[in-house]
């Protein structure tokens, strides 16, 4: 067999070889690793060069995954699946500090999440990938009554929901036939309110209302059972804090 034929066969064989999924490296639930992206690491089409990590989560715990690099503009992405190239339930990253730090927040569910540390455009260089459990405060439930307007503020120490938006919880008694109006106003963030049966702001909300006017969310609901109800007064997005007022009245 001559050299030209051998080279042609070798080229055809390489083209026909399947692309191997990136190896999955294990992350600990706390701490992190300092390492680098090299030219030998695979490229995800349309995304960038990447390394794939697996994180075993615990149900009920929340995690923050951060990616820091001075060598490239980092992107971090998390989801479920067999490989980082085919993630489902994707949690997108957000830029925290210009172009050098990105993170995602995850709800632990007792299964493995895959984390993709990405260097766009095939970049290379050092980075730090960290994982921290997020310590969330339990919701403190406050009492209110019809005809009352309460002033308070959302802070980083408040309880958060599944999208990590801070909230306060208020309980009140209502009677069958009441038509109630709950109004939340804030100039510091986009408000949202949700109504729950029971006094703990837990379970599936009876009704929910995002901001419908500038800095105002208003929920209107007819009450069918005489019992205790509760309202989550919250921001629409995570990391939004500041002063607000909450009004409960009958229509």
Keywords, separated by commas or semicolons:
251 residues, mainly beta, 53% strand, 2 domains, ten-stranded mixed β-sheet, Jelly Rolls, disordered N terminus, six-stranded mixed β-sheet
What would you note in describing this structure?
The chain has one helix at 3-16, and strands spanning 24-27, 31-37, 43-44, 48-56, 62-68, 75-80, 88-91, 94-95, 101-107, 112-120, 125-133, 141-143, 148-154, 159-160, 166-174, 179-185, 191-197, 207-213, 216-222, 227-235, 242-250. By secondary structure, the chain is mainly beta. It folds into two domains: 21-133, Jelly Rolls (Sandwich), CATH 2.60.120.380; 141-250, Jelly Rolls, CATH 2.60.120.380. The radius of gyration is 25 Å and the shape is elongated. The model is unreliable at 3-20 (pLDDT under 50).
In short:
The chain has 251 residues and is mainly beta. It has one helix at residues 3-16; strands at 24-27, 31-37, 43-44, 48-56, 62-68, 75-80, 88-91, 94-95, 101-107, 112-120, 125-133, 141-143, 148-154, 159-160, 166-174, 179-185, 191-197, 207-213, 216-222, 227-235, 242-250.
Walk me through the topology.
Layout: H1 3-16, E1 24-27, E2 31-37, E3 43-44, E4 48-56, E5 62-68, E6 75-80, E7 88-91, E8 94-95, E9 101-107, E10 112-120, E11 125-133, E12 141-143, E13 148-154, E14 159-160, E15 166-174, E16 179-185, E17 191-197, E18 207-213, E19 216-222, E20 227-235, E21 242-250
Parallel strand pairs: 1-4, 12-15
Antiparallel strand pairs: 2-11, 3-4, 4-10, 5-9, 5-11, 6-7, 6-10, 8-9, 13-21, 14-15, 15-20, 16-19, 16-21, 17-18, 17-20, 18-19
């Amino acid at each position: 067999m001559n050299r030209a034929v051998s080279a042609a066969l070798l080229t055809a064989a390489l083209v026909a070889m399947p692309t191997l999924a990136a190896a999955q490296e294990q992350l600990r639930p706390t701490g992190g690793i300092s390492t680098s992206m090299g030219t030998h690491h695979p490229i995800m089409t349309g995304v960038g060069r990447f390394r794939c990590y697996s994180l075993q989560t615990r149900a009920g715990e929340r995690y923050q995954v951060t990616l820091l690099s001075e060598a490239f503009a980092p992107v971090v992405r998390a989801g479920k699946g067999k490989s980082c190239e085919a993630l489902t339930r994707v949690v997108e990253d957000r830029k925290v500090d210009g172009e050098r730090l990105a993170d995602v927040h995850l709800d632990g569910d007792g299964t493995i999440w895959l984390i993709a540390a990405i260097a766009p455009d095939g970049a290379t260089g050092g980075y730090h990938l960290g994982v921290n459990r997020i310590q969330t405060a339990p919701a403190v439930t406050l009492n209110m009554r019809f005809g009352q307007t309460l002033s308070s503020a959302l802070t980083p120490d408040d309880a958060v929901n599944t999208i990590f938006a801070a909230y306060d919880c208020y309980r009140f008694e209502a009677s069958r036939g009441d038509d109630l109006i709950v109004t939340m106003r804030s100039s510091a963030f986009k408000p949202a309110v949700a109504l729950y049966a029971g006094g703990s702001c837990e379970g599936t909300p009876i009704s929910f209302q995002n901001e419908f006017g500038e800095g105002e969310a208003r929920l209107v609901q007819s009450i069918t059972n005489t019992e205790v109800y509760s309202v989550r007064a919250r921001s629409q997005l995570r990391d939004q804090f500041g002063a607000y007022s909450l009004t409960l009245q009958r229509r």
